Amino acid sequence: MLKIENLHVRVAGRDILQGLTLDVKAGEVHAIMGPNGAGKSTLANVLAGREGYEITEGSVTFEGHNLLEREPEQRAADGLFLAFQYPVEIPGVNNTYFLRSALNAQRKARGEPELDSMQFLKRVREKLAVLHLDDKLLQRGVNEGFSGGEKKRNEIFQLAVLQPKLAILDETDSGLDIDALKTVAEGVNALRSKERAFIVITHYQRLLDYIRPDVVHVLADGRIIESGGPELALQLEEHGYAWIKDRIAPEIAA
Amino acid sequence: MSALLDSLAADFKGDASRRASLEAALREGLPHARSEAWKYTSLRALERRTFIPASHIAIEIDPALLAAIHAPRLVFVNGRYDAARSDLSGLPAGVELHPLSHALAAGNAGASSSPERRFGRADEVFAHLNAALADDGVLVRIGAGVQAGTPLQLVFVGASNGDDAAWHSRHLIELRPGAALTVVEHHIAGGEHAHLGNALTQVHLAADSVLTHARIQDEAPRATLFTRTDAVLARNAHYRRIDLELGAGLSRHELNVRLEGEGATLNANGVLLATGKRHLDTRLGIEHLARDTSCDLLWRGLGAGLSRAVFHGGITISKGADGSDANLSNKNLLLSDNAEIDTQPVLEIHADEVKAAHGATVGQLDPTAMFYLRSRGLPAADARQLLTAAFCREVVNTVESDDLRETLAIALDRALDTQGSS
């Protein structure tokens, strides 16, 4: 589904990603862990098409397209979704209106019929219940006056409504208390399927207690330095990132 | 002398008092580029143009333009009262609503006293011209304590009839003590034209009266409009004003409000939608003259294409106007490298224990918000449109009445849809 090969990315003159390679198949959940500054959010933003990132080397294909040539909205229509680390407040743009416009814009781009308001509301109600979101929030501006937890739940709610093929969660656990974390995880788990893949980016192992990954990758210094099963996350939690870097570094040097 | 003033003066038929106004206008001439109040609005191109007086001949306009505007309504086409298209049914009891032309024909002294008002300030050539030449307009009076539930709709249609025409309209809105009224002005393009309209509105709000006054300016892209509103507020009077500047080629609006009575309150909000080659200039002159008066001014401007938006927010808190409260916010979005926005908040305080705040900014659409919307699948043009509309709608959302808010939102959305941000 997603194939990243030898990706090098420069931001403001600094090389952040330095040869990242990753292969994600339908139905898989990949966790990407790493210390601050390793390039985790850069990876998420580059995949979603944010401006300000210079790709100096490498390739990314998603569903057969050269992803890096696509506009952000085309990537969304192709089935890529990014849950933001810091969801944006947009006062004056109604949540429901925005989400319906976005969904229908995607459907239109894919040549699918648009949903009418009845069909749309039906889908919204189903998903709201899973995420324990108050439907009053939907009448407000996008994320306007939402608490930190509400913003993160709204991201997962959008994910649920838009039903992408690949969802990237960028530190969705940051700033969440344990109850909110469980709710978000439930929302994500309800969406797991054979057709859908997830990339879960996190600094802490905690989220992975609730969203069980198939593969865990460690990202440090701009590349993936180790991959393993869920147990790798536990080892990291126990020993810290310094441990793995020390352990891996000699191999890279060799 | 300018070709413009000569052509406007050619039609003069008034009495001695009006002649004095005309002479003042001719003596003063058009504002200089040096004039502070006209610094950002050059009249050099206009100066060379000529206009004929707007005719009384009936002009065809598309009935659909008026379909959504309910009675009671007065309709003016090219500044002339149009009885056939007006509809006074449902006029609330206690409200007088007349075209000025009828009052003048009947020799109504109360009506004619308003055009005779003197103007002493410099750069008031259009007010002088108005005093000399205005022969139609709207007179609204509402009796003490009358709470008019139904809004009055005043419709001004500019329509093509060959030559470029000019008209001068004079309006008077007077609320007696404790009265409440809503007035909605619609300035509509009834086709392509390049006319000139010069309107002067006097608003008198007696103690404890409340006037909600909306103005939707959506004139033709080559129309020229000079608009001036002079309002005087007595004790605890409340003036709620909203202006949507969505159309015209050149639209200059001066809104002068004197808060003369203790506790008088002004809310004046507006949107300047400068797209295409439009030049919009709004100039507020708010004077706090009594204790505990307040003003709250929320303005949003948009500069796209080759347009220019000019905003001047002048607030003076005079000696003795202690305990007054003034707030001005003017935020602008510059959407094109070829557009220009000039904003100038000016606050003068001569009183004690005053609360005053003002802020003016010019910025671009937030790239983070743009990316967020696009990452959800909205094409860039749609995302830009959505953010721009939200930016402008903040002003419309301040309107309490659901019906009026809806009317304004529809006008704003339509303007944004048809003009986009180009």
SSE layout and pairing:
The complex is a heterodimer of chains A (254) and B (422).
Chain A: E1 2-11, E2 14-24, E3 29-33, H1 40-48, E4 54-62, E5 65-66, H2 72-78, E6 80-83, E7 90-94, H3 95-109, H4 117-131, E8 141-142, H5 148-162, E9 166-170, H6 178-191, E10 197-202, E11 215-220, E12 223-228, H7 230-239, H8 241-253
Parallel strand pairs in A: 3-10, 3-11, 6-9, 9-10
Antiparallel strand pairs in A: 1-2, 1-4, 4-5, 7-8, 11-12
Helix pairs in contact in A: 2-3, 4-5, 5-6
Chain B: H1 3-9, H2 16-28, H3 44-47, E1 52-53, H4 64-67, E2 73-77, E3 80-81, E4 95-99, H5 100-105, H6 109-113, H7 125-133, E5 138-142, E6 152-158, E7 165-175, E8 180-189, E9 196-205, E10 210-218, E11 224-233, E12 238-245, E13 250-259, E14 265-274, E15 279-288, E16 294-303, E17 308-317, E18 325-334, E19 340-349, E20 355-363, H8 367-375, H9 380-396, H10 402-419
Parallel strand pairs in B: 1-7, 2-6, 5-7, 6-8, 7-9, 8-10, 9-11, 10-12, 11-13, 12-14, 13-15, 14-16, 15-17, 16-18, 17-19, 18-20
Antiparallel strand pairs in B: 2-3, 4-5
Helix pairs in contact in B: 2-7, 8-9, 9-10
Report a brief summary of the structure.
By secondary structure, chain A is of the alpha/beta class. Chain A has helices spanning 40-48, 72-78, 95-109, 117-131, 148-162, 178-191, 230-239, 241-253, and strands spanning 2-11, 14-24, 29-33, 54-62, 65-66, 80-83, 90-94, 141-142, 166-170, 197-202, 215-220, 223-228. Chain B contains ten helices and 20 strands.
